[in-house]
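Field: sequence (string)
Field: structure_tokens (string)

Example rows 1 and 2, in order.
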Amino acid sequence: MSYVRKLGASALVIAAAFAVAFAVLVSSPTQTVEAAVHDGPDVSEGDNTALTGADLTKNNGDTVYISNAAASDAVYVTFTIQTVEAASASFTHASASDDGQSITCNAGGACDADPTDTGSATVALKIDDDSGAGAIFVRQATVAATPVEALDTITVVVAQVPTRLTAKPVDASINSGQGAADPGTTYLDIRLLDANNKGIADTAITIVSTRALLSRPADVDGVSPLVRTFNTEEVTVGSIADGTAAALAGTATTSEDARADDETNPDVDTAGWVRVAVTGGGAPGVSTITVTAGELSTTTEVVLHGGAKNLAAEAEQSAIELNGMTNIVVTVTDSGGNPVKDARVSIKGKGGIVPPAQGDTAVAAVVNVNKDGGTIGALTDKGDIPACGDVAEVEADDTTTPPTVGVAESTGTNDAGQCVVKVTATDNTGTDNDAARGTHTITLVSGSSGVAPRGVDEVVVEIQVGGAPASIESDAPERIDPSDELTVNVTVLDDEGVRVGAVFVEVIKTDGPGAIIADTQAKTSDGRASFTYLASSRPDVAEFLVRTYNANADGTRGSTVTAKLPIIVEIAEEVVEPEPVVEEEPVVEEEPEPVVEEAPSLSIPSADLGLVLGVFSGGTVDELKAAVAAVCANDGVVIWSTPGSGGPVSMSPAAPDVINAGFGRAYPDGLPSPTALQIVDCGGAPEAMDGMEETGNGMEETGNGGEENGG
């Protein structure tokens, strides 16, 4: 069957994006015998009679069938839709016109949704999936000279849309039934809700478990766990079908709201609930349970534990004062590390509590007091832990004198495998049997007999008992920067310097700006506490006072201050001291040793020869004269040289300057180093022979050259 959708229907629905489901109430105040509304197309069948009353309530997306008995093969009927507010619908047949808002059909014709009933024309009307609240009118008129009309009025109301699915086990841990143990059973409570947290009724739910078995809850002492009371409103919630064997999967239908039958408390919503029994299947482990409703899905876990195998324990306060109290939190797990529920723990029968020294009075330890924080009834508050032994429930009664305080029942460890042992350091005023100061050792075993069962190790916890608070120490600095955030840790000590735990403590800002933004806890933890202070943005001084108090007999804070500590913190920028200036000793510069320049020299192989070749080390003409005088004894010695730019020139040191003028002009800037010279008539000079011996090798080489030149 084709479907023609009315254009623009979604524009009328404000919440169309959320795919809201709608119910449709169909009524026919002006309906004639010719017109009727049905659930199915076979209007002639006895089980598809015309709808009336509450049966006319439908959901969006449903299809209803409008039949008109005035039609025949020769008589046609025109069906026309009109809507108000946000309601919308369309005729589904392809021959519908005006975007599915009008259709004309005869009995047995192509558009007849029930061709077997030749005495009427039936058309299918689809309420749009995104229809909003409003009204739909279906007008029917025969195509004749004198039309016969009928009108069906369809009222559309907004229905719920599933948006949230929750699943929570009553107990998060049950016995797996391993070996000879009886399998534990708990309940899984499921609820389907809309965007307004209202329960959604009559909706299919699928539940699948990986390990635990699912079944319909059995009656307990003749009372069905499926009959539940919500704020005085009683309702039977949905569950897996009765008689179904325990299995890993099942289906259920959410509960109807009790308000349908009982309007005495209309504000209580009891729709959308399902409860399923969850039972251990024999194998320890964690069972993951997946719950699905349409496109919504959620998971939860139930621990299936074996027998107790391991014990672990830790004191909430390992250091307490005389007359102080603490709890030892014990955790019991099986061989796989799964927490064991309803396990008992007791103090070892022999040597279970050992005081600091022989003859000392030991602390008292009991296993029949819940850590309940004063809560009356079940242990449901955060931090509540059951006692490690059995505790009978006590009903609270305000009419008694004094009023009876309610006590929650305890049958051992909770879902997390935890229970508590209460330890008290008794302070018997005026007697000598106070709990001794020092370290007390407490040994715990699994079970309630005080004897450790085979295969389960015992666990030892130490509790240190100190005297009353005598002093307080802190790690507060003397100074902090403006706007700094400062956390101050304080330690409470007795007169022997032993930390004192579980002592009432407070801190007061007695002066200065800023504020304490995180106060101390009510009591010290192992003798320690802390607070956080936010400094002002301007320089100043902040003053605090830390005080400890005694405890009253009922455990509340007393009025006696047992120790106190003032704390003063300066708020200022850090002053950075300049580094001291170290004067360096003056550096005395050492005078450089004078450079003794060697005078220009003249080297010759022998002063006795008439003509020799010498080498001048370079210098002025006057320096050459001095060098010649140093090696030659003959005043008539003559020096010949050949400059690179002209012919030979000569100089006689003893001759007048005019004789030597040509030599001077040849070397206006002096002679380069080295310069070869021819020396004539040098003559012997004993004082010059020592110098000639030092340079003899070099002169011999040049002498050879001179001989070659002379030749």
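Row 2 begins here:
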Amino acid sequence: MGVEYPYLAILAVIAFTMAVSGLIYFFINTYTEALKTPILSTYAQACYTVDNKTYLEVTIKHERGLIVNLQRIEVYSDNGAVVYTPGGSLADINVTMEGFNGRLGPGQVGYVKMIFPSGYFTPNKTYSGVVLFDAGNTVFTFQVVKCPFITYPYPTTLLNLGLTASTGTILALGLIKTVAMKPDIRLYTRENVFYNDTFDTDPFTTGRIIKVNCTDKWQYLSQSIYISINRGDKIVDECIILVNKSLPSTGTVYIAFNSTSGVMGAWGRVDAILYNNSTNYFYTIGARFQGDSADAVNITLNNRYVLYTSGVTVSAPYYIVAMYVFNIGNLSLWLNNGYYGPVSDKTVVPTHAGLGVLWEKANIMVYLDNLLITLNAPPWFVNVTSVPVGWSIVLRDQSGNIVSSGTSVNGNVTLDLRNYNIYIVKNATLEVYDDRGYLQVSRSFDYVMGGEVYIITGTYTPGVEFNGLAVGVGQFDTVILYNITDLGNLSLVQSISANSVFNGSSSIVIGSGTIYLLNTSGVYTYDYSMSMWRLVTSACRASGLGAGIGVVGDGVIVVPGVGNNSLCIYNMTTGSTTLYLVTDGDVTEYTCLASSGYTVYVSLLGSSGPVIVAYYVSSGVVSKNATYSIRDYRLYGLTHDGSRYLYFIIPYGGDYGGVYRLDTLTGETYPLPILLWPGPVSPGDRLEYYSNNLIYARDEGTDELYLIPLEYVL
């Protein structure tokens, strides 16, 4: 057969070979494609902490296959599905990716860690989730169990002070703001002041003013112009006094002065005068008085034509400002800050300005004083320019009383003299305060008056701000200041001598950009620009061990210490002091305090044991918010994280102490597994919270500050 049909045999062999080859190719191709298919596995574990947070860690392993890209992760909780996409964020859930950035290759392992707040999961309950990639997905399940106890490392050395601290070490942490300017203030321009006269000397003999039609005289005793008429019969007459200086013919003229009248059975008027020397016409703008009070205001032309009148009752002395606007002829009057008018009349264009008194029946006595005439500027405003934003200007009179004050918001401050009523302030002082309330310069002037412009001089560089750590070392009477913005690269900024303010039981705090130091004399602040300590108040002071200071709201709050169960609140805005009697427990040598916003936390020994009491402080008013029970009244180093937790030290005995955390929302207190091996633990030991770390300073026997990281707190 094979001989007879050889071609058939060959064809059969070829067919068989092709069939086998096809099967082999199909197998190889199928196997190769199978190798490209991603094989993914997922494992998840979750635990809850004492503050009811849930920590979920999803481990994603790429066994083999093509590179995949994470699309999203869905976690199914008691609050519904939580969906996270790479590069996105969730409102109250913290998500981090470790080991990959969403792209996962063969043999690679990635981790997605999620921290959920309270309310998303129930302990010991099983939940599920899904991880979706661009090629494939995987499902995971997890049960929420209690987190294991985590062992903390010992505190590590943060920095070496370069000296050994003894009893009296104090510690403070906060935002420091230095000032790089020592300014001055001077008169910039008086171009808007047309005429000013306090009549402290005789103006008639010097020709400053001229009499028109009466025998006015200057009185030395009152240092003012004095008009006295003593006639028994009724007589109408007028005295006019003009400034010996011609007015311009444009703009706005203000005539300001003050007057006191005495009337003996008669009445009259006291007026500002606007006069035209070519027509001999004038306006009288003022008040009609009877007895010792005004009963009307008048704007008249030549005492013949009454342009405006209004009934008013104003007691002497009278503070009068008349205004005339050229071009439109507007006339207005302010009497003791009451406004009257305006009236429009263009018939008289004044060439001179002055004062006048009209009597309608004798006997009268009138005093005229403090004449100020300004052009195009109200006589009650003093302007100060080039004032750094946040800085303040204070104007005081010769007795030290505050006439006016203001704070710069746009580089300028306007001082309003209307409450003072006299627009020429004699022997005045202008004070310049920086944005922390430090007096930078105080300069006296013979006169400060409305219409003037003053200027702050000096090259101003904005204050340097940094996160500062202030360490006060009592033995050396020194405050050492560090920049701790970068904990890995601390830098020494300044060593401040404090030998004049380190006395008795001291405490220190940083607030509003500056250092506050408490001692037995009071509360001091440090002025960086002047390199000196300034006494803020002596009303709040340390009285013994347990004394402490904090900045809360708009004030400084002081716990005086043993022997004084009260809180002393100094309002930095008003300068007032308030005492609040503590009835929730006794102040002891172990008393400490921490503040956050408008709340201060104070440790006390209550009738049923140790407590921490939260007080809300605003504008000197104190109210109790909460009370937390503590197991040991020897509580040191109280500090607040600015959110919800308090941290403090309780000694175990011997040379060891433990760190505790108090949740101010739930009231729960629990120890952290941190062993403070450096001893001893004493009332001066301090803690400060900074960027999820605690900074620990011992009161004595060491030259180091220690860092306690809180990254392990679950």
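free_text_note (row 2): The radius of gyration is 42 Å.
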